[in-house]
Amino acid sequence: MIKLDKYNSEILRELKINGRMANSELAEKIALSPSACLRRVQELENSGLIKGYRAILDSELLGNSFIAYVNIGLAEHSTDSQQAFEQAINLAEEVKECHNITGAFEYLLRIETCDIKAFKAFHANVLGAIAQVRMITTHVVMDSPKDERM
Description:
There is one protein chain. By secondary structure, this protein is of the alpha+beta class. The protein has helices at residues 6-17, 23-30, 34-46, 79-90, 116-125, and strands spanning 66-74, 95-100, 107-113, 133-140.
């Protein structure tokens, strides 16, 4: 396990804000030499602590301004039922996140569609067509004053 000292913590904080930051800029921000900074970043990557870098897309500009979180209850509480549901949901482009959770429901989904009409079609034609689904509860996102995925 890698040591999270002051420098590694600062590296992670800065890269979380801007994963495209040049090593020289990162080194300057955290007061390390570029070679020491690069070595630390590579160690963080090799350890698996940094899993990768990605582009964060604007859902609204892509035409997906309707966002909902959906709780899914399964009819059966078996491994086979969960695997079948997960395989079906992995094919759905509208599903941006799928989490197996504890509590009254088995899954929490983040769904993005262009509007409520498209969500209604997704609800009926995709979620409603998955044999393992017993219950669907939807929470519509009205605003996101804090979203650390951005």
